[in-house]
Structures are given as C-alpha cells and as structure tokens.
Amino acid sequence: MGSAEQPQILAVEGMALPPMVIRLPEGIHAVEVSLDEVERTTAVEQLVRDIYPRGEVPLWQAMSALYSASALEMLSAGVSFFGIGLYDIEGDGGVAHCSLTVAVFESGEADQDTVAQGVFALLSPDPMRDVTWLDLPCGPAVSAISFRKLVIDGQYTKSGKDEELSMGQMQVHVPFSTGPYTAVITLDTASVEQWDEFTHAMAGIVGSLEFPVDDAEKVRH
Fold first, then answer.
1. What is the number of other CB atoms lying within 10 angstroms of the CB of residue 158?
2. Which of 75, 3, 7 is nearest to 35 (CA)?
3. Which of 53, 14, 6, 18 is nearest to 217 (CA)?
4. 96 conformational bin, left if phi > 0, alpha if psi -120 to 50, beta if neither
5. What is the value of pTM for the model shown?
6. DSSP 15
7. Which of 20, 94, 204, 218 pairs as cysteine with 10 (C-beta 3.0–4.6 A)?
8. What is the pLDDT of residues 95-119, one digit of tens each?
9. From residue 215, how far is each of 33, 71, 73, 128 by CA, in Å?
10. CA nearest 37: which of 62, 67, 68, 16?
11. DSSP conformation letters of 141-192
C-alpha cells in the first residue's frame, strides 16, 4: 500500500463541529458526504472514474447514481466521509478492496477519557469483538475488530453454488479533544488475506487524526 497522504477537513451538514483533520493513504478514494448536492455529485463522479479508470460512460453514470444514492443514506446516518480502497495484490494480479467510512456522533461529554472508557465498557462484553484501548497522538480511543461469514446466493457466484464470504471489520472510536463528539472510523473488507496491510493502513489513518483549535477557540481560552 502506498504512503502518500491526502489531508481532508471534517465537516458534517447540520452540525457545528470543531475541525478534525484526517489523512488518507494512497489508494483510498474518498468523498465528503456533507458537501452540497452539486459538489457531492461532482465528487462522486470523480470517485467512480478513479475506481474504474478503464470504464466507459454508461458504467460511470450507473455507478455514480448508485454511489450518490448511498451518500444520501450515509449523510442521514451521520457519515461525513466514505471511501473505497483498491490495491494491487503483489504477484497475484488481483485487487484487494475495502470500504471506509468516517461518522461523527454527539457524545454528550467533553472529557476524552470518560467517553473512551464508556465506549470500552459498552463494547467489551461482546464476545464477537476484539476490543482494545488505544493511546493515539490525538488522545484515547477504542478499537473493535470483528469477523463474520456471509452466504452468497449461487445465482451471483461463478460456480453457480452458494458460497461463503468472509468479512472483516475494523472500527475505531475517537473522542474529540475539542468538544462533546466522537468520530467513528470503520474499515470493512472481504479481502481478509490482506488483513495485515489493511491494519497498517487503518493505523496510519487513526494515527494521523488531529483536532485543531481554531482562532476563536484560542481567544476564549
């Protein structure tokens, strides 16, 4: 996976959030869901062209419509960014893929440790999750890793038979240091053979998070 980074500033429509800077690794193509409709449509169209560089106009139009509809659904669920990651598998000729979302929720508590401890206590009893406390440069956070199997109907498989698909999910809850909000970064992938690479990418993403203090906030303090 590449090491180049594309910094983006967090914004969520309808919420007056303190800024959050997130840097995405090369290979993840992201769209800011909270853009206005015209800007979001343009961003989705570019996303589709990045994902399918050898595609043609009918494919781009169809996928743009699909992702635009998905973006609206995500916006209503508090998602600020969603992205698609595509990486060449060395020596295989195949492509490893993942999806990434960044959502923000009001936590009702401004103290980072208190919020993180609450999330840890809430998630830890679930035996299907591997829950870990993290000390990130931006403050405490909680990660939750889980795996599940899905059954794909035979009419959608090459063999014509039902097949199992393994899915892995990494989710990191990061309380804001500048207000009563929590960012939830989620990476899902069916390319579990490349799990170590995706873990490295996720570590880079959450390790890059920053909560800058704007000038107005500095004056008040």
1. 7
2. 75
3. 18
4. beta
5. 0.78
6. B
7. 20
8. 778 888 888 888 889 999 999 999 9
9. 26, 32, 34, 43
10. 68
11. EEEEEEEEEEEEPGGGSSSSS-EEEEEEEEEEEEE-SSSSEEEEEEEEES-G
The encoded tokens of residue 112 equal 């980072």
Point out which residues pair with 96 in neighbouring strands.
87
pLDDT tens track for 40-85: 788 778 878 877 777 788 888 887 787 777 777 777 777 778 888 8
H helix and E strand count, the chain: 5, 9
Return all residues near 154 (Cβ < 8 A) that are at least 6 apart. Answer: 160, 161, 162, 163
What's the CA gap between 31 and 101, in Å, rounded?
Answer: 10
Bridge partner list, 85: 28, 98
- Tokens encoding 60: 């781009």
